[in-house]
Records
---
Amino acid sequence: MTGLNRISQLTTAVFVLTAVGWVGSASAQFIGASVDAVISYSATNVTAKSLSGGSVGISHPIPLIPNIGGTVLAFTDTETSSVTSPSSSRLTLITKVKLQTINFFYHIPFPVVTMVVGAGFGTIKTSANADLDSSTEDLSNKGDVAEGFIHIGLPFYNLLEFHLGYYVISAPKLDRLNGTSRDYSSHTASNIEQKKSYSGGMTTVGLQIAF
């Protein structure tokens, strides 16, 4: 719920800041393209390895019509568990996570820096490889995801802009062992979350080119 509340606050900010800053902002309008690369992702009880992805966006000069973009994030979350009761057992769970969204955003005019505020929606998919005592199986699940984000940048000669971005991502708890017929309860009872949320924060760095 915290992630959804933060997204709701960012979405509200889109319209409030646009209404306040629209007056006299005609010079801030342009046609442009932006590309961002993810540099970090943090979430509770998640160790994100093999991190990749980012976002793209297309901007236009039409008043009040939102700009459009998309986000992709992929990483691997690896967990291990060893138990001795009711019998000795070891589980290695490797979960590949991929999020894809489409988003809408506004440029908020400021005298020195540039700001973008937006929100989006899409899907999250988990592909899990469960190795239980050297016997493996592949399992998958998917759900809906929402995001809110902000970019703050420095323009150069009205053609280039370098910026940092922060994305708040809200995802449901997904059963990563969905569809299994095996008993993982000795591991999921204490060491590994069978149903796990990948809600978190993504930081990006990017470049925008205006035409």
---
Amino acid sequence: MIPTMEYLSSTIVIVNRDDREIVATLRALESQDLSSVDRVLVVDASHGRLDDIRLQFPQVTWINYLGDPAMRTIAHQRNVGWKESNTDLIIYLDAHCIPVEGWFATLTQPLRDHSYDVVTGPVRMSDSTAHWSYGTSEREERKDFITANVAIRRSVLAELGGFNEEIGFAEDTDMSWRVRDHGTAILCEPAAAITHEMGGYVENLSRSHRYGRGRTRLYRYHHLPLRRFIADEKDGVVYAIAVASFWFPPSWLLPLAMWWRARKLDGWRTVTYQFAYGAGILREALWRRA
């Protein structure tokens, strides 16, 4: 374990492959109100391919992650990060995200004054056609959080055994559900927003498919009834039905209705993201993981 007893907080950034966008994220963190007891930690799975970036940020602590790059290792990397940090406050920020001015102080203050143990903030999408976002303009308690933007007390992670490394997808939602069931409140602080760089069209299409699979797998993993899934995932169920409708020509009016609804959001792109999400639901529902 890294000797960090002099530190209070660790902002942990996960690099899963060759995320060169981390440069912008680390630059943005330099402008935050980090003191001498607040550190930045990168769990780096690039296997040396980002060494030139390491040289640009000598003040950052880099942890070499040697897991299998062909596997989804995000949950394990998050666990390595908080266990190695040895600090009371753990902050997760994705490598593709840019926080607003004052983000760090706003996000961590409720933990520093011990009014909350988990604080999250809005996630704004850089791609306006992306069909999801997180957070509102109101300061409120939420039922979930996204690990792209969350501060959580180390003791909470330790009591819950860290992130679920078996589920494969949606480990952040899984953790937030366990936090909620543990009786720990989750505060959403609207002034602690970040912008998530979404990448290109193909990347967003793949992401939408993963999200559909992840949500479906999550409900199955927690043995929740189908009626709960339908109630919580109304839009996703519609997207899945729309995908299935391609095999039933009389039902093609549903995809057309989806396009009409999304026409002001670059309709065809938005609808293809929705179809990818629905396909992910069907993929996970019909073919169980081995």
---
Amino acid sequence: MLGAIDHGFFEPIHHPDRAWFLIGTRVTIVIGSFFMILATAREFFSQRVGLLIVGLGGLAGILVIFSILVSDNFLWILGYYAAALVLILVLSLAHLRAWPGARWMVAGVIVALGASVLAAIEFEGFLGLGVYGTYHVILLPSVVFLYLGGRAMRKTAAV
């Protein structure tokens, strides 16, 4: 939603503080992606393996946040976010029959990854929305699917 606000309101008027809003939005995406990694590790792995995955995910997130502060390359964010989604996808597919949220997660991840690929190849899609407007519109159903899948996660876990 922050990206949609940025592309819809701040970017068109060339707001003088847009750079700070953009950095904040991108850092928020990285933090959200880290929490997807954390929730996935808690759901599917033992405490030891989960802590390793969370540690590696946290370290990678810190590196991506550093890259946000020194460059203007959205592909770093897409890569980190895609890694979190692929982790969720692989584990959801592996537990497709046993885990009630798996089908929702698979659907959400496929839509999100599809939207990310379209943004990476700069697909303009919907007339008048541009690359990132199209990305955000395609991403909306993914949020609903991931939410429904997340509702099936355990309330307590190992990590």
